Amino acid sequence: MSETTESAAASPVSGRILAVDALRGFDMFWIAGGKPLLFGWTVAAGVSLPAWLSFHLEHVPWEGFSAWDLIMPLFLFISGVSLPFSLGRRLTTGQEYRAVYRRILRRIILLWILGMVAQGHLLEVAGMVIKGHPDIYRLHFYSNTLQAIAAGYGVTAVVLLHARRDWQLFILSMLLVVYWAVLTFVPVPGHPAGLLEPRCNIALWVDERLLGPFRDGTEYTWILSSLGFAASVLLGAQAGHILRSQASWGMKLAALAGCGLVCLGLGWLWGQRFPIIKHLWTSSMVLWAAGWSFLLLAIFFALTDMLGIRRPFLIFTVIGMNAIVAYMGAPFLGDGVDYLIDTFTSASPMQVWLGDVASFCILWLVLWGMYRKRWFVRL
């Protein structure tokens, strides 16, 4: 945990691009309980959501994309936006590459462990070991968004440290093309090449062979998909380069919006032949999601940093400044509240909604206290 210096009350951390924190918080808001709050409000008000909105509040089963599918790609994208700032500061202060790489490795390890805690049953297995009845196959080694960020962050950090902008774009392109080529031309043993079915694709086959009993059992893929994870984070880093540049704010806004439209166009075109499938993190999905991420960042940048509209975004900024606390804390807090509801009440829809509201409010108030104290958890 690190403590920042004093600054204006409207922005506890000086010199930051507020849009990045607000957008990160907006993304985390939905992870930390935004959807239950929205659905609970409709139950309380006795109204139903329109079909188009209901569609965008759920994951698509396989091929296609909804707004809810953007949450994880946006999280990876935003992690990349911050990299040109953090790595640039370390190199301009004269840190040796060895020290920088130590910090990179430390962050990868911490993210990986937290990912195993959040979704890999690490604490459960550790408890079983202490009790003398371990079931190590309950452990999922690679199954969480934080681990996807760790993989993408590691590749992107190395690329940013040693490659010029033009080479960064070349490497980004190669990550997307190589992953497309593997999924398209490498056959699953016993099947023809190019199969992209939920239970039959080369990425899933690799996970099953390398992770074995430590795989999470879902249709999501991880090892080969790390090429796509790296591309998502590297695309975010390009947005970070734009925000860190000496260009005028108007030019930065135009560049972010332009990149977003280009990515959407490329993702849509590629998706006609190489489907947009989030479970596989296909290259077309990477571009499509990055397009929306660029546009959202442009909107948040225009409103918060250019126009100075900050108060309405405070609910998101508070979450975004301590996103890792929100990510790790929300499930545990939600489970605790659910346990109390199940134990002491009949768990009606209204009581469940009130429990969701209570758990979110408690989490937000904790984050607000940390925000006011200028306590920000950094990995």
Characterization of this structure:
It is a single chain. The chain has 379 residues and is mainly α. It has one domain (2-376). 68% of the residues lie in helices and 1% in strands. The protein is built from 15 helices and two strands. A two-stranded antiparallel sheet has the order 1-2. Helix 1 packs across helix 12, helix 5 packs antiparallel against helix 7 (145-162) and helix 7 packs across helix 10 (226-244). The termini are close together.
What would a concise description of this structure say?
By secondary structure, the chain is mostly helical. It has 15 helices and two strands.
Can you write the helix and strand succession as a string?
A: EHHHHHHHHHHHHHHHE
Helix percentage: 55-70%
Mean pLDDT: 89
**Distance between the first and last residues' Cα:** 8 Å
Number of beta strands: 2
Shape descriptor reads globular
Helix count from the secondary structure assignment: 15
Radius of gyration: 21 Å
**Main sheet attributes: strand count, strand direction, barrel closure:** 2 strands, antiparallel
User: What amount of the residues lies in strands?
Assistant: under 5%
Give me the secondary-structure category.
Answer: mainly alpha
Assembly state (oligomeric): single chain
